[in-house]
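Preliminary data (for renewal application), oxa(dethia)-CoA complex.
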Amino acid sequence: MTAIGMAVPQKRIDNVFFESFLETTDEWIVSRTGIKTRYHTAEDEFTSDLCIKAAANLLETFPGVTLDGVDMILVSTVTPDQPMPSMACRLQYKLDLPQAGALDVYAACAGFSYAVVVAKGLISAGTHRKILVFGAETLSKITDFTDRTSCMLFGDGAGVVLLEADELGNVGACITGASGEGGPDLYISGFAKTIDGHPLKMDRTIVQNGRKVFKWAVTKVAEQMPVLAAKNGLTLDEIDWFVPHSANLRIIEAISNETGFPVEKTLESIVDFGNTSSASIPIALYRGIVTGKVKKGDKIMLLGFGGGLAYAGTVITW
Ligand code: UT7
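Predicted structure:
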């Protein structure tokens, strides 16, 4: 992993915005979620637009880097501009990368981590040498603004990393997994009216059982952190930074309580950007790097979790 970029739309939404049409308060939102602001796209602004901006930001942030020779584009999103063509194909065209393959990865909040696992596999197999991995969402377009238990959570944004073949490599061993029985607990409806007999709300907005997802996330992530560290020949003490999916600051604090991993060594994007699903991990990592918190050689655990329910992670050495 050699470079990283991010982008959010211009429209910044504070918590007072929700007070104007819902029975809620800034105080409740901050104390129950940690979120202070999030960003919403304009009506004519879409996931591919945010990806283009994130790629431009990557090039600005890492002046020596070029996209010449990119041979694969992976995009994690549940909010593509349209179901077909894929976002990766749109970006292959818009970024003018004629030699690149293009594939979207569909694993919601675990999607960015899953896409990094896939990219590492392709590079390790020797079939690809230079891969762009995007995590990008416009969740505001599929948010139910009448649901006070979810609408204040979600934000729009994009992150991107560049992975290049290298003899040493800085992306370590990976984990992937799922608890598919939790499908009805976090979904966006499509064609089917039920999952495993559970009737679905059919309006194509995000529907969640917040408490169940919260508990699953804390239990699963706390269980998997030492497993992932051990797979990389490390103990949790040897991890410098933990970058979980930013779903709720209280989830991050509860994971810290369960595992004893210090919350100060966690990089988050929830407070300023809300839950940006696929984009939350690269945005948090980007900010850790550009603010100088992350030092060269630091060991960073990425662990995505969410809709599926699914999870994936790896440890990188920056
Ligand atoms: O990326 C993955 C996607 N989703 C998640 O990760 C979600 C994980 N879950 C969560 O983040 C939390 O469960 C929520 C933020 C969704 C909810 O927080 P909570 O602490 O679990 O609240 P709760 O659902 O237990 O509700 C507590 C109370 C309820 O009132 P009663 O029944 O105690 O009278 C809710 O009606 O808070 C009420 N409430 C609100 N009050 C003010 C729920 N939403 C709001 C609100 N403003 N926006």
